[in-house]
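Researcher: Here's the sequence for the chain we discussed earlier.
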Amino acid sequence: METRVKTTADFLIIGAGIIGLNVARTLHAQHPSASIIVIDKESDVAQHASGRNSGVLHAGFYYSPNSLKAQFCRDGNTAMRAFVRENKLRINDCGKVVVARNEMELPELERLYERGKENGVKLQLVDEKELVEIEPNAKTTGKAIYSPTTAIIDPIEVCQTMRKELQSQGIQVLTNTPYEHRIGGNTIVAGGKTFEAGRIINCAGLYADRIAKDFGFCEQYSIVPFKGVYREYTGADKPISKCVYGVPNPHNPFLGVHYSVTVDGRVKIGPTAIPIPGRENYHGMEGVNIHDALQIMKCDAVMFATDPDFRSHAFREIRKYYGPYMISQAAQMVKHLDKDKFTSWGRPGIRAQLMDDQSYKLLHDFKVEGDNESTHVLNAVSPAFTSSIPFAKYIVENYIEKTPPSPVLSEAFLHSQKGKHRG
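Model: Thanks. This is the structure I predict for it:
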């Protein structure tokens, strides 16, 4: 039998997306003597959801006050802004308006505003005249919400900068190292190599459920993928300068068609949020395997049959692939729009959405499970990028610091932990 050389670490993080990178940053800040390794199956960091999202830094007013999303989004906005500023990265500090497309949406608009105030988010409730001063082309019915702290960054630029920071601190970021299987305890095989760690943190995004099941977690959940694609405005003019959103449907976990403006000024509408048969099904039938597809399609079929909200969502999302329909949805939120200039599809992204296998309901909040050997980030959906810095701190403090470590592998870390978990 082939004998592999074993690589050891105090902390091994699986997944080099925004959550995995920030968990590594937090662990290093709290345990500078610890050995930390981050592994990822791709050739670089942030190759999936983290590098394919819209780059919007959300303000934090969509989420229920008692949710983890609400807790971390507002603080994450501030923290990510500070990181971008310290590293001299690009940011479009454009702000956002949420408009009511008809009178029936006004009560939900006002509830959204009140929820934002409860979450401690800076917002303004403005009338139509005031909206003209903020975003002249936006159209609303009666009132609108203005969110001055919403901004846009470049997610790949952020993740690349975090990688460089980690490597400068002596943390290994090993790409082309896909997780294969668990041997036992905290020993795994990845990229043909054997790794053993005092603590394993699973931040594998689209594959987090599979890895968690190898460790005895995520027993009642599965990840269901949804693909999001934007259409880009290719005209020389700019129809809007701020992000423009409609009032979201409270029965829909997605925010619907909206406008966003990239760091380099490109205007996009979208996204779609369509159920797909593969975790990496970005184009056509690529990234689809039969076993995975059958499981995902079963989940989608049960939700379609039993959940009227999911059924109406699926029909609505399928229609978005017809360009004129998506553009017509966007046109409801502005006064003037050249519909012929949305000629380009953007780079698709896939959202890893956790589903309860017993109720066949999607989980809308962040979800983490773990013990004193491993921690598994199972549901890190939007606004996970905005929330990533405080979310990572929460993961470390509540799932790593509060449980005694398994026998760690470096004497330096063992010495630094003496007395921490006594009593």
